[in-house]
């Protein structure tokens, strides 16, 4: 094994074996590297988007969307192989980036508050269901993202100006998801690796079984910038939301079960739980009440059922429903104990979440 100084990159024959773990899909999660017969993590000291870009490219996962820190996907185990990685962003391999020597680090797995364990987010394309020539890309959910259709043998995008709520309903049903909650053209993840536009318009009545039965008009329109391709967010069987705050990413936590919204008791609630919630909502890392402007931190008690109590997440769960908790509806709480969550991305006035009709009216036009 070669020993290198801190000012040069580690040296091994061939590219390192890397993986992203702790999230849905192979293109999101905590970065781990296989070295000397063991999987280990990377400390996030000095880590940034240029480093993430190198990893994403090396893994064949497209452009880097974000490089959050502080054990965003939970703590790893084993050795911490790399520290102080400093890529320019154009390197073909992580080995081409300056870093401390292998295993030389001042980090510990438990130092989540200081970001000891590297985590990485990249846009991901979920494979289409069998026999369904449609997929959603650039998100962390199979029910949300940028729309891509297999048309005449090629995957391509659809111009947002030719995309409507009726078509979104058909797509969500086709993918086995719930009703369309958002059709976010201005908030579309299109910038990260959008496919060429192959359809200028999709016209549906809303009753078709699949998009194939809608009126598909091929060809690229004269003007359809890549930040205006169609995207959709469908409801999933398990839903959660933050209400009573300044935006969709801060507020009282509510979950939907059996068609009924209810709250979550704060017994045993931790920042680790909030990490899972913020990630599931696409709201970045977990923040704190002090991140909000003065006077915006009281979310008030909820009403109706208290669905969850004693929630205990490890941090790497893809959804809150995967965390340990009491039986649904069993608790010893009142609504005065309803938990609130603040994410670092606590407000986005451009991206409106409401009823499908409200969302459509607020997002389809510039």
TrEMBL record:
It is found in: Secreted. Disulfide bonds join 43-107, 87-97, 204-214, 313-323. One of its GO terms (cellular component) is membrane. Interacts with LGALS1 and laminin. InterPro entries: SRCR (IPR001190), SRCR-like_dom_sf (IPR036772). Gene3D superfamilies: SRCR-like domain (3.10.250.10). Residues 18-113, 134-235, 240-344 form the SRCR domain. It comes from Strix occidentalis caurina (northern spotted owl). Keywords: Disulfide bond, Glycoprotein, Receptor, Repeat, Secreted, Signal. Binds to extracellular matrix proteins. Binds to pathogen-associated molecular patterns (PAMPs) present on the cell walls of Gram-positive and Gram-negative bacteria and fungi, behaving as a pattern recognition receptor (PRR). Induces bacterial and fungal aggregation and subsequent inhibition of PAMP-induced cytokine release. Does not possess intrinsic bactericidal activity. May play a role in the innate defense and homeostasis of certain epithelial surfaces. This is Soluble scavenger receptor cysteine-rich domain-containing protein SSC5D.
């Amino acid at each position: 094994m070669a020993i290198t100084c801190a000012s040069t990159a580690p040296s091994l024959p061939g590219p390192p074996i890397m993986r992203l773990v702790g999230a849905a899909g192979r293109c999101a999660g905590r970065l781990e590297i296989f070295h000397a017969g063991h999987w280990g993590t990377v400390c996030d000291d000095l880590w940034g988007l240029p480093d993430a870009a190198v990893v994403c490219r090396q893994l064949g996962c497209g452009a880097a969307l974000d490089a959050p820190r502080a054990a965003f996907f939970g703590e790893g185990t084993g050795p911490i192989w790399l520290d102080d990685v400093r890529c320019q962003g154009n390197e073909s391999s992580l080995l081409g980036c300056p870093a401390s020597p292998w295993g030389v680090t001042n980090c510990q797995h438990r130092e989540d508050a200081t970001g000891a364990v590297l985590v990485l987010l990249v846009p991901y394309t979920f494979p289409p269901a069998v026999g369904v020539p449609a997929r959603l890309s650039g998100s962390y959910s199979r029910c949300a993202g940028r729309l891509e259709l297999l048309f005449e043998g090629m995957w391509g995008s659809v111009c947002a100006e030719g995309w409507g709520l009726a078509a979104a309903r058909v797509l969500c049903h086709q993918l086995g998801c719930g009703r369309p909650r958002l059709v976010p053209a201005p908030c579309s993840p299109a910038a990260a690796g959008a496919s060429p536009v192959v359809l200028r318009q999709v016209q549906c009545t809303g009753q078709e079984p699949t998009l194939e039965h809608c009126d598909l008009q091929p060809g690229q329109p004269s003007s359809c910038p890549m930040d205006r391709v169609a995207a959709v967010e469908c409801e999933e069987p398990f839903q959660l939301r933050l209400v009573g705050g300044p935006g969709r990413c801060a507020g009282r936590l509510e979950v939907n079960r059996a068609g009924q919204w209810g709250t979550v008791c704060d017994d045993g609630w931790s920042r680790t739980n909030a990490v899972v919630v913020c990630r599931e909502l696409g709201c970045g890392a977990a923040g704190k009440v002090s991140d909000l402007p003065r006077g915006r931190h009281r979310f008030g008690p909820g009403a109706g059922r208290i669905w969850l109590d004693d929630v205990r997440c490890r941090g790497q769960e893809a959804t809150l429903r995967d965390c340990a908790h009491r039986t649904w509806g069993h608790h010893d709480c009142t609504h005065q104990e309803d938990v609130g969550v603040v994410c670092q991305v606590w407000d986005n006035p451009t991206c409106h979440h409401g009823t499908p009709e409200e969302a459509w009216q607020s997002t389809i036009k510039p």
